[in-house]
Amino acid sequence: MSTKDWIEKDYYATLGVQKSASSDEIKKSYRKLARESHPDHNPGDTGAEERFKAVSEAYAVLGDEAKRREYDEMRSLFGSGQFRRNARGAGGPGGQPFDVSDLFGGAAGGGDRRFGGAGFQDLFSSIFSGGGGAGGPARPRGPAKGRDIETEVALDFGDAVRGVTLPLTLRAPGICDTCAGSGAKPGTSPVTCQVCHGAGVTNRNQGSFSFSEPCRNCQGVGTVVEEKCPECHGTGGVTKTRTLNVRFPAGVADGQRIRLNGRGEPGERGGPAGDLYVHVKVRPDELFGRTGDDLTLTVPITFPEAVLGTDLRVPTLDGTVTLRVPPGTPSGRVLRARGKGVVRRDGKAGDLLVTLDVVVPAGVSDEARAALEAFAEQTPPAAREHLDARVRRFS
Question: What ranges cover the CXXCXGXG motif repeats (predicted)?
Answer without folding.
Answer: 176-183, 193-200, 215-222, 229-236
